[in-house]
Each structure stands twice: as C-alpha cells, then as structure tokens.
C-alpha cells in the first residue's frame, strides 16, 4: 500500500508574495538571517504585510543551525506568541523554523499553534514541502535529521523575484541539492508512481534551467522553473525517501561545513556508481535518461547510467564547481581528511536518510566511498 499526502498549500509564480496580504490582524514572527535584513531583501516581504499586523523579526539564523540556535529562536517566538510563523530564507532559516516548531509542539509552548508559512529565497532544499529538518550537532560535528509531520508548512510561497539575486556559486550548489533530491528519490526504496513523476519532472527542469539561472541570474522564467523543480523534488523525497548520498553529504557538512548542495554534488557520482550495481536501481537511472531524451532506449543500461554521470559532471564543470574534496578552496588536507573518515562513516551508518537507499551499505563501504571523494 502506498500513501501520497501533500499537506502544504503552494502559491507560486511572479507576485506570489502578494498572497501575504490576506493577513490583517495577526501577530507575525519572521525568522531569517541577518544578510536578508541588512541587504533589504526582507523589504520585499515587509511591503506585503498590512500595518494592522504586529510583526517581530528574528534575524539571528546562522548556517548549519544547531540546537542552541534553535533554542534562541524558540525563546523569542514563545515570548512573542505568534499567530503566524514565517520562515524566510534558505535551508538554514527553514530548518531553524522547523526545529522551533518541532520542539515548541512537544513542549506545548504556544497557546495555539501558529500558521506556519515558508518562503524560500533559494531553489534547493524543497524543505517547504517536507516533514524533515536537519540540525547540526556541533560537538560531534555531524548533522542529524529530524522527521515529524508537525513540521509540515501550512503554506509555501514561491516567488521567483526572491531568488534572482542569489549568487552564481550558491545557485549552483542549491541546484545540485535539487538534482540529488530528485535522483535519490527516483531510485529510493519508497519510490512510487507519484514520486517518480515528481522526481522526473524536477530533473528535467533542473537540467534545462539550472545553467540558465547560473549564467543569467535575472532570468525570471528560469528562476521560477528552478523554484518549481526544488518544490517537486521536495515532495518526491519526502514521500519516497532519500539515500546514501545524503547520508554522506550530512557528514561532509557537519565535519567540514561544506555547503549542503555542494556536499551532495561531491557525493552524488559515488552514490550513483555504487547503487547502479543493483540491477533495479541501474534500470531506473537508465529509465530516467530515456524519459528525458538524454539517451535512446536502444542504449544499454550500463551506458545510459554512464551517460547520466557524464551529464552531471559536465553540468558541474559548466558551473565551475569543485568535483573533489581536494579542490575545495578551504577544504582539509588529505591527511586530516583521512583521519576523519572513520567517524564520518560511522555517523553515516546512523543517518536517517540511509534506510531509503536501494542497496545496502556497510561501514567499511562508506569508508572506501569517503576516501574516493578526495
């Protein structure tokens, strides 16, 4: 039996932010990072908020949010007692808000649960559609996935105008987060016809429009397409699952603060190569290349998988992305990296994304795969 549940209302397209005008007499608590307040980006949202509302902005969100950051946000939100809670920003802001919702719900900290609105300013996480949040354990230098239906957003607002100023490097990284979500969901154990449709369309849109977003950032059509791709990939992995690539990416992010999308891009080739040794997974990778007209159906499965790998590698090259750990501008030296492999492998085995992987992975295999990334 398969269950397909999409809990979040999605408002998308140009001028989507205007939907915020529906709130007239609310207590609105906005979480974002200081860059969005200092750069004035938050003004795009503020202009849509009627002056009859009470508004508080919490802009102390930091990259790789940890428990102390979530606790600070939660304390401020509980003190304000909002009727509308807004996550405005990228993955860090959304994960911080979700962590807040998760812990506040368990503690019954709000007199009544606020309406939860997520407004992404990047196209990557798809988190506006999921019951997932990723929080960093600063002491153990790893990322931990929280999964609970209470973290579903009530409303997601996708306005491409919010993403046009995203720098090329971040556009590339977040775009590969989209691709990784879709590709992992497509071969995951929990994949269904519903998730396959979402994942396939997400890959199609990303391959076509991500390069345009990278090279021509002000292209609203391309930005809107990537917002949609991110959203659909989020639906796909939320329902179908993820796998070993995310289990590895979480460790690279936790240990070395590699941006999540870039960590996914670095681990994705190894994940596809490993999983494609499973006949069913290889057939699905190949099927994707056929459906997207990347390869004719006459091309044998192994060659089709290789072609998919080549397409992804070419895309990374086109966007000047590092393709190995050793190419990271501020990455670890080889000796330091090797010393951390056992810990990363052990933590990857505990990662909550791993059970969805189509092929079993043991700790020694993870060690070999991490070593191959350098």
From TrEMBL:
The keyword Signal does not apply. Keywords: Oxidoreductase. The keyword Signal does not apply. Residues 8-160 form the Alcohol dehydrogenase iron-type/glycerol dehydrogenase GldA domain. Gene3D superfamilies: 3.40.50.1970, Dehydroquinate synthase-like - alpha domain (1.20.1090.10). Residues 171-373 form the Fe-containing alcohol dehydrogenase-like C-terminal domain. It comes from the Bacteria. GO terms for molecular function: alcohol dehydrogenase (NAD+) activity; metal ion binding. Pfam families: ADH_Fe_C, Fe-ADH. This is Alcohol dehydrogenase. It comes from Megasphaera elsdenii.
